[in-house]
Amino acid sequence: MWLPYGRTEVAVKVPNENLLGVIDVKERVGVINPFKEVDDALENPLGTPKLDAVVKSGETVAIVVDDKTRPAPTRLILSSLLKKLGQTGVQDEDITVIFGCGVHTMTEAEGLALLGEALGSRINIQIHDCFAEDLEYVGKTSFGTKVSVNKTFLDADLRILTGDIALHYYAGYSGGRKSILPAITGIDAIQHNHALLLDPKAVTGNLDGNPVHLDMEEALHLVDVDLALNVVLNSQLEVVKAFAGDVDKVFHEGVQLVNELCTVPVESPAEIVVVSPGGSPFDIDLYQAYKGIDSALNVVKDKGVVVLVAECLEGYANKTFHDWMVRFKSLSSIRREIRRNFVLGGHKAYYLLKALARVKIILVSIMPDYYATGVFKLRTAKTVNAALKSALRMTGRRGKVLVLPHGSTTLPIIKKREGRMRT
Questions:
Q1: What crossing angle do the helices spanning 346-356 and 331-341 adopt, rounded to 10°?
Q2: CA separation (Å) from 417 to 170, 221, 354?
Q3: Which CATH number fits domain 2-26+262-420: 3.30.530.20, 1.25.40.10, 1.20.120.80, 3.90.226.30?
Q4: What do you get for the CA distance between the two ends of the chain, in Å?
Q5: 269 Cβ partners below 8 Å, 6+ apart?
Q6: 331 contacts 353 by C-beta, under 8 angstroms
Q7: pLDDT category, 418, cuts 50, 70, 90?
Q8: What is the pTM of this model?
Q9: Domain boundaries, given as residue ranges, for the chain
């Protein structure tokens, strides 16, 4: 079987007697004309008027787009939006695109590369800085999160959120309200919100009682948003469907479709799960690739083995992730620190230590062993087949194997637990 690895693929050979199954998404072919799909969504908005009824020439527009770590087709989305805005008389110089980075870092050059020369030269570009001092306070949620938001966005006459809706391992799903918190809020709001991930309901594919999601939703409604434009992608990162209109309606329509595409019932867990996060950008670094482990944990037995096939071209990516793995030796100590002084990146160390308390993890990547083993406490192998042989030695040669080629975009559920998953 072939597994995505960076921008290429690697093969894994599983003996027939060991193979329990391959868990993959319910693949849906992308639309033939994605530009038309996005245009049609804008022409038929959910719960809001069309753009030409809410904006006119001379008014300013702020559009939040995803940063470089997300697979959203920003160039496609913006091309359609700029065409529609131009038809209403809005001038390019009155449009600002804000890269909603949250705590991620990004340069203007990287932003221009994402947009392309044709788009990037037409409009204003801003890289959101969560540490900036000129953010504007908009209120506090019932969870106690004090929310300050990007002032360029708040000052605009028309405010638009864009991105993709997909699985997320503690917010439940990406998209919608995440384009406010954490995308364009201040660091204090982000840290306070993300500390809620210790709650057992803050898991992949769950919105019901999920405090991370509910807090984000409240933060969203502290701000007036005129339009959301979100897409749902397949495993090949092709547009399956676009939704435009009211941000809540767009989000929940997208979530329903993601569930249809990504939730896969599985008969029984296995001793070994071989998982790829899905190739680039999902395996660009260990920080992002963890999402593959998160999915594998749903279907691997306790004391089993997860083989993570992730290129990690940019290493581990996050210094706090690294430092917390060095600093904390137990789950109890890291939980205390998250409650007392949450720092984004530390949460990834928490998740990884939590996973390592349950299973063994073998990493197949280009990351040096000094980091993979010495810092992140992972076993390593040069190839996926070597990793599988090691895993079978750990579990016994009769160990059953599940293969998960698109771990970041697949939600495998053991059938007896399926009824407990709610959105």
A1: 160
A2: 18, 33, 21
A3: 3.90.226.30
A4: 32
A5: 299, 300, 301, 304, 402, 414
A6: yes
A7: very low
A8: 0.85
A9: 2-26+262-420, 34-233
